[in-house]
Design goal:
With 297 residues, the chain is α/β, with parallel strands linked by helices. The chain is built from ten helices and 14 strands. Strands 3, 4, 5, 6, 7, 10, 11, 12 and 14 form a nine-stranded mixed sheet that branches. Strands 9-8-13 form a three-stranded antiparallel sheet, with no helix packed on it. It has a two-stranded antiparallel sheet with strand order 1-2.
Amino acid sequence: MDLVDGIRVFVTTVETGSFAAAAARLGISPKLASKYMAELEDRFGARLLQRTTRRIGLTAAGERLLRRAPDWLETLEDMRGDLRESGARLSGTLRVSAPLSFGEMHAAPMLRRFQARHPDLTVDLRLSDQFADLAAEGIDLALRIGQLQDSALIARKLGEIVLLLVAAPAYLDRAGRPLQAQDLTAHDCIRDTNLRSSGGWPLVEAGVPRRIPVSGRFLVNSARATRDLALEGAGIALCPDYMIGPDLAAGRLERVLPETEGARLDVHALHLDHRRMARRTRALLDFVVRDRFDSLL
C-alpha cells in the first residue's frame, strides 16, 4: 500500500462517513478501501477509526492525524502539480454543482471557457435545484442562489440577481396591463414552485414590501419553463433577470409594473475548507470571481 493512498482513504472516509462512500469518491472498491485503512493502522501502530455497525468514528489517534493529514495531502498535491505541470497545466476532474436553469444557461458556458484554458481538465457539472452535500458527493465547488443555510462551507459572494415581473405583449394586450401590484390577483400568474412562495409573491412596490396572493393555471419547478410559458402568452411570470434579459431586449417579453420587483437573491460560490482545496479548484474559484459569468452579475 502506498502511504498517500492510505491517508487519502482515511481522510475521505472521515469526510463521507463510510468506506463505501469513500471508495465511490476515490474510484476504488469498498473492500480495497477497508484494506488500505487496515494497512495504514498497522503501519502507524495505532487504531485510527472506531467501527460499529451504524457509524465510523475517530479515535484519539485518528483525531490527531486528521488535524494534519488534509494539509499534508494538499501540499503533496501542489508539489506533484508543480513538478509534473511546471505550475501551469491543471489536470484531473472538477466536480461542480449548480441550480438547473442557471447551470444550463450560465454555469456551463462559464465552465467551457475555463476548460478551454486548461484542456487537460475534465469537468463534471451536476445540475439540480436540490442542494448537494459537497463532502459526501465529492463536489469541489457549488454555485448557489438565495439565502445560505448555516454550514461549515466557505462562501464567496459573486453578485446578485433580481426577480422581475414579465409577460408576453400578446398576453397583456389580451388581458390588460396591471397598474398596481394588487391587480395581479386578477391575472393568470405562472408560479415557479422553487421560489417557495405559497403565501403569494413577495414584491417591493415603489420601495414598499408587499405580499400579493396570486393564482393561475401553471405551477412549474423550473425558471426556464416559467419563462417559456410566459413567452407563449400563458400569463405573468416572476422570473430571474438572468433568464429573461435577451427576451426583454428583443421585445418578446415586457416588464410588468416596472417600479415593482421581486426578491434580490445573492449568488455564492461555496467550497470546503481552504486547506483541503486542490490547485484546480483554487484556479476555478479565481476564474469564477473574475469571469462573473461573462458580465452577467
